[in-house]
């Protein structure tokens, strides 16, 4: 049992007790932390929020809420690798699976070994996608921070007849003195500047 696999939590959402029991045992033997089973789509949704698994193996046909709706709702709050199990090739199911951003769509009957191989692939792809999402989020935040800093520089240059370099140095020094992030100081300057502009227009 590897140290890496001990940390991987797999939630099983399957209302077939025999299959879910076999799958949970197989996961434990392979070194995964097996969670569940959730026997309804609603329960899968609740356990995903509570237990924060690394990946979910989800049946489609379940009471209360089907697996595709549960998968869709789970991935509305951040991406989580999900493998869908089904005995149906309904085109509508495939369309909904794509919309729910699932990483696997497997047809029953399927062997445990085939399922676990798909699980490893889903985990690898999921890590890459999550890493890219984090990078994109960081880039967006950095771009937004730059926009705010540029606006703050503009206010200082106009209000105090500063040159661009002087305005930037002033903000950097003030941020260090106040022990705040440069972006937060810039946002405060922009807020004050906008208030002054509003008053000047009245």
TrEMBL record:
SMART domains, alphabetized: ANTAR, REC
Which ranges carry the Response regulatory domain? Answer: 9-123
* GO MF annotation, one: phosphorelay response regulator activity
Q: Which residues form the ANTAR domain?
A: 129-190
Recorded protein name is Response regulator receiver and ANTAR domain protein
Arranged from A to Z, the UniProt key words for this protein are: DNA-binding, Phosphoprotein
**4-aspartylphosphate (modified residue): where?**
59
Enumerate the Gene Ontology biological process terms. Answer: regulation of DNA-templated transcription
Query: Looking at the UniProt record for this protein, which Gene Ontology cellular component terms does it annotate, in alphabetical order?
Result: cytosol; protein-DNA complex
